[in-house]
Amino acid sequence: MFDSSRTLELDLQASILPILEDAMQRYADRPAFRCFGRTLTFTDTDRLSQAFAAFLQRRLGVSKGQRIAVMMPNIPAFPVALFGIVRAGAVQVNVNPLYTPRELEHQLNDAGVETIVIFAGATATLAEIVGHTRVKNVITVAPGDAIGGGLPIPAIDPRLGSTIGFADALAAGATLELTPLHLGGDDVLFLQYTGGTTGLSKGATLLHRNLTANTAQFRAFVAAELRPGEEVVVTALPLYHIFALMVNLLSCFAVGAENWLVPNSRDMAGFIDILKQARPTLFTGVNTLFAGLLAQPNIAEVDFSRLRLAIGGGAAVLPITSRRWKALTGRDILEGYGLSETSPVLSLNPPGAGFSGTVGLPFPGTEIKLLDEQDQEVAPGEAGEICARGPQVMPGYWQKPKANAAAFTSDGFFRTGDVGVFDERGFLKIVDRKKDMIIVSGFNVFPNEVEAVAAACTGIAECACVGRPDEKTGEAVRLFAVKTPDGALDEATLLAHCRQLLTAYKVPRQVRFVETLPKSNVGKILRKDLRTIA
User: Fold this and answer.
1) Burial state string for 214-245 with b = 16 or more CB within 10 A and e = fewer than 16
2) Mode of pairing for the β-strands spanning 258-261 and 232-235
3) Span 52-89, pLDDT tens digits
4) How far apart are CA 467 and CA 1, in angstroms?
5) Per-residue confidence at 195, pLDDT binned at 50, 70, 90?
6) Which of 76, 292, 304, 397 could link 329 by a cystine bridge, Cβ 3.0 to 4.6 Å?
7) Using the 8-state DSSP alphabet, how is residue 525 labeled?
8) What is the distance between the alpha carbons of residues 81 and 173, in angstroms, rounded to a whole number?
9) How far apart, in Å, are the Cα atoms of 3 and each of 116, 391, 427?
């Protein structure tokens, strides 16, 4: 077991609110958020979030512990709504604005949501299923809300009937008195729903103390590179995802960062324009986001001279991506590891350590052990399921006692479902998801390894591999690959490259070139979707 020797004093009785309010006072006149060419200061954020909290309390009767869904992209209303929900003592249920009606219905009903704050452009999805939920208050958000009007407003689906405009809620709340509530570490802050790769998604119950702990762990771990009151972060990862929510929003807000929100990271021209203006000191992404930027011809026009921290997570950062990023910016991508259930970060590569191909060292106060199929710790250097215990780990899934019994060991370690190994320095390397492992003639093949090798072949833009049934070997490796724009690569060349670097049983038996790979809205490649392709 690896138990981080670094200690950190944490107040697990405190809520996240004092951290936010301290930042609002300390950095009052500094810009907190920039979007659509406009700015919200820390004082603006303080004032508007108080108004929203007062509206929730006085007009909607929201009480402590009620769940409020937030379904919007990275626009200024997101942090204002979040901080208002915290101040009202409610629980935020983070919802992907691109959900299908089926996915949304499940999440709203599972969480028992009666109030939803939703981007106007997503209201058609809600209208399909609202009659099958407990939702009675619909607050609609326009792009310009909280920063002034003048921006195009998507149509609100008329099937919803009477709705409340977010701008109207803020105006009404400004005239109402907010009743401060006592919030403690054991109060619920977020319901963060998992991707549902093994069935219906489950809500990770994240307490205030889980997030106060993880934000403090993060800030302590990278303290040498942080400049409170001077940081500039560009947030392209969606804020409804726990990675950006903890690092880009809560942690960066706490140190007075200027946060440039990217409403649509798929608009690469607009994205790069934001990077040019912001000149970030801190940037987060997943491998596909970094790779997508690096593929843009004009990415070299961005001034990265101020960049001190580039952090990757959510999926493996490929060595070739990190090498290209460092060539462009002079900075390594620090790969980290975590899950929704762990608020999310468990480990991270230390600044200055270089790209290691690992996910680094456990955060202060975090215990990680690797278990075999019999729940016994594996020998040093051997792979096992990563199990974690620490102040950032959730107490359990929302109203899922059976799932909770299976999710934790008898001594309280959360079973991540990921397979890892510690190197001689104590750095953790993710081998793969247990369920993604491919077994070829009794040998374990981990897709991450095959993909890293294939991605380094000239002419590959991105790739992913899965197992397919094979009469002789049980399973065989099947590689899906996207070519670079020149399109010159062929299957024989790619397989020859793989044979040079992989043991024979790991070499793909079949290559299929495709235009795109299926991805989640966070940018993770969805291997489960590839398995369904004939």
Assistant:
1) bbbbbbbbbeebbeeeebbbbbbbbbbbbbbb
2) parallel
3) 999 999 999 999 999 999 999 999 999 999 999 999 99
4) 31
5) low
6) 304
7) B
8) 12
9) 41, 13, 12
Looking at the domain covering 438-530, what would its CATH class be?
alpha beta
Provide the β-strand partners of residue 511: 479
Report the pLDDT value the prediction gives residue 502, as an integer from 0 to 100: 85
- Is the Cβ–Cβ distance between 86 and 16 less than 8 Å? yes
Residue 495 and residue 185: Cα distance in Å, rounded? 53
Compute the Cα dihedral for 290, 294, 295, 297 and give only its sign: positive
**Strand runs (DSSP E) across 375-459, as ranges?**
384-389, 396-397, 414-422, 428-433, 438-440, 443-445
Helices (H), 100-150: 101-111, 123-129
- Dist. CA 529–CA 86, nearest whole Å: 37
Residues 523 and 509: their CA atoms lie apart, in Å, by 26
User: Which neighbouring-strand residues pair with 445?
Assistant: 438
- Crossing angle of helices 166-173 and 42-58, in 10° steps, is 90
Lowest mean per-residue pLDDT among 23-27, 269-273, 445-449: 445-449
How long a stretch of residues is the chain? 534
Q: Name the CATH code of domain 37-206 (choices 3.10.450.50, 3.40.50.300, 3.70.10.10, 3.40.50.980).
A: 3.40.50.980
Q: Is the peptide bond between 344 and the residue preceding it cis, with omega within 30 degrees of 0?
A: yes
Q: State the DSSP H helix or E strand holding residue 308, giving kind and residue range, or none if neither.
A: none
Long-range contacts of 515-522 (CB under 8 A, 24+ apart): 515/482, 516/482, 517/462, 517/463, 517/464, 517/480, 517/482, 519/288, 520/195, 521/96, 521/98, 521/238, 522/237, 522/238, 522/241, 522/243, 522/286, 522/314
Phi, psi of 235 (to 5 degrees): -110, 100
**37-206 and 438-530 have identical folds:** no
Selection from 240, 214, 235, 248 nearest residue 345 by Cα: 214
Write the single-letter amino acid at 129: I
Q: Which residues contact 399 (CB under 8 A, 6 or more apart)?
A: 110, 203
Give the contacts of 175 (CB within 8 A, at least 6 positions apart): none
Query: What's the burial of 319, exposed, middle or buried (CB within 10 Å: 0-12/13-18/19+)?
Result: middle
pLDDT tens, 4-58?
A: 556 788 888 999 999 999 999 999 999 999 999 999 999 999 999 999 999 999 9
Contact 125, 57 (CB under 8 A): no
Residue 322, token pair as written in the block = 């990190």
**Neighbour count for residue 361 (Cβ, 10 Å):** 24
Q: Is the pLDDT of residue 135 over 90?
A: yes
Domain-wise residue ranges, the chain? 37-206, 438-530
Q: Which two tokens stand for residue 3?
A: 């138990």
Q: Are strands 31-35 and 384-389 parallel, antiparallel or unpaired?
A: unpaired
